[in-house]
Design a protein that fits this description.
Blueprint: H1 25-37, H2 55-68, E1 72-76, H3 79-89, E2 97-100, H4 107-114, E3 118-121, H5 133-136, E4 144-150, H6 159-169, E5 172-176, E6 184-185, E7 188-189, E8 196-200, E9 213-217, H7 220-230, H8 257-268, H9 270-288, E10 294-295, E11 303-304, E12 310-314, H10 316-319, H11 323-332, E13 338-339, H12 349-354, H13 381-390, E14 391-394, H14 403-418, H15 420-425
Parallel strand pairs: 2-3, 2-4, 4-5, 5-8
Antiparallel strand pairs: 1-9, 6-7, 6-11, 8-9, 10-12, 12-14, 13-14
Helix pairs in contact: 1-8, 2-8, 3-4, 3-7, 9-14
The structure holds pyridoxal-5'-phosphate.
Length: about 425
């Protein structure tokens, strides 16, 4: 039996895994063309031709519309911006509550705060790590305006139940698909099921322009509002004879032509990059499937998982070693793996201290807000259990990695399992 690297043995893998994006010829050619043109952004904050950006931005939006069969696509310079423009377009404002999962990148919830509304956190489903629809119902109040659904790790949330609750209570649904472009729920692409779909093009996503994002919607008014918030809308609403200006406080969320040029090339490869991820993830599932004490990702027939990361749950009682020790041992073998995902968002100081805008606690203390919200530790026990004890995630299932790389991951898991008795004796 080979000794574990964490206990002084030889590391299983010295070769680093790839962490950067792979940029293709089309991206290079397009960027060169933009540089040659000297027009690095096509936007001007005026009604008219430049309101909607330059050639590359328009081409990206056209590709996005076609791919999702969406009436509107609006590019922005991050998914954080996308969530903000989406929240504005949904009419979220002071006094409103927005239901959201606590197990997501912080921006999914900050979008509500950006509109002076109150995030209400609802626990996740332990099978898919997304918001648990059975717990949404009890969180709905007369103040609830919207649900921000996050398709976490590349797997769709249970959209049937969520859509039903939203319909019953007249709530808007924003789908945060930052981690799940190309994922489906009952053959529908995520992002096309709710009112607005939000996507990220940041460095770590399946396709990237460094920073960037976009939204899709079928609603004309929402699309216009999102374009206005993207581009200093307050100086444009009058020219456009827009009557309902609520929420149209304009930012500069415009994408440059350089970013859009990269994004167009990347977007064309979304499906092939996704299929590559799925192939490797399924191969990893095969490799790990005989290990007792590990719960591998759910693969229900009605959902297509696109494996932004590969989540695994570890049962400490069966394995005999804590999740944290197991992850440390894997990392010592040269396998990238994280213990948990993010800290449940409500435990961040913004929520614990209830300080966002100014020192007086706005929006939590806003007199327009008539509710009371709980951010105590313990409110979302499944999320806390995943984060503190059970979940590990690895991002190895992606291009340009191959099955040989995944073989190393499986070998490392097996090596750690074989040595679990020795590992159990190691001090944390
Ligand atoms: C679920 C989710 N939402 C939103 C974001 C924000 O994306 P961006 O970095 O493009 O602002 C991320 C980024 O990690 C994310 O994972």
């Amino acid at each position: 039996m080979e000794r574990l690297a964490i206990l002084g043995g030889k590391k299983l893998r010295e070769k680093p895994f790839v962490t950067h994006a792979v940029i293709g010829e089309e991206e290079r050619e397009r960027v060169s063309k933009v540089l040659d043109s000297g027009m690095l952004s096509g936007f001007i904050a005026q009604a008219g031709d430049h309101f909607l950006g330059g050639e590359q931005v328009k081409e990206l939006e056209s590709l996005v519309r076609e791919y999702f069969n969406a009436k509107h696509a609006v590019s922005v310079n991050s998914a954080t911006a996308a969530l903000h423009v989406a929240a504005a377009a949904c009419g979220i404002g002071p006094g409103d509550e927005v239901i959201v999962t606590p197990y997501t990148m912080c921006a999914s919830a900050t979008a509500a705060i950006m509109m002076n509304a109150i995030p209400v956190f609802v626990d996740i489903d332990e099978k898919n790590f997304c918001i648990d629809p059975s717990k949404i119902k009890e969180a709905v109040t007369p103040r609830t305006k919207a649900i921000i659904v996050v398709h976490l790790f590349g797997l769709a949330a249970d959209m049937d139940e969520i859509t039903e609750i939203a319909k019953e209570h007249k709530l808007r649904v924003i789908e945060d698909c930052a981690q799940a472009p190309g994922a489906t729920f009952k053959d529908r692409l995520v992002g096309t099921i709710g009112d607005i779909g939000v996507f990220s093009l940041n460095q770590h996503k399946t396709i990237t322009s460094g920073e960037g994002g976009f939204v899709i919607t079928g609603d004309d008014d929402m699309a216009l509002k999102m374009q206005l918030v993207r581009n200093h809308g307050e100086v444009i609403t009058e020219k456009m004879e827009l009557e309902d200006i609520a929420g149209v406080v304009g930012f500069n969320y415009r994408m440059t032509e350089l970013e859009a040029a990269v994004a167009v090339g990347q977007f064309r490869r979304l499906d092939s990059l996704t299929e590559h991820r799925i192939g490797l993830a399924e191969y990893l599932t095969e490799g790990l499937s005989n290990i007792d004490g590990l719960t591998l990702p759910e693969m229900p027939d009605h959902k297509k998982h696109v494996y932004f990361v590969y989540p695994i749950r570890l049962d400490e009682k069966v394995i005999g070693v804590s999740r944290d020790k197991f992850v440390k041992a894997l990392v010592a073998e040269g396998i990238p793996c994280g213990a948990g995902y993010v800290r449940p968002i409500y435990l961040e100081p913004l929520y614990q201290k209830r300080i966002a805008y100014g020192k007086e606690g706005c929006p939590f203390t806003c007199p327009i807000y008539k509710g009371s919200v709980n951010y105590d530790k313990g409110i979302c026990p499944v999320t806390e259990m995943m984060h503190e004890k059970e979940l590990m995630v690895t991002g190895v299932c992606k291009y340009p990695h191959t099955r040989d790389d995944i073989d190393d991951v499986v070998k490392a898991f097996k090596k750690v399992i074989e040595n679990r008795a020795a590992l159990a004796d190691l001090k944390e």
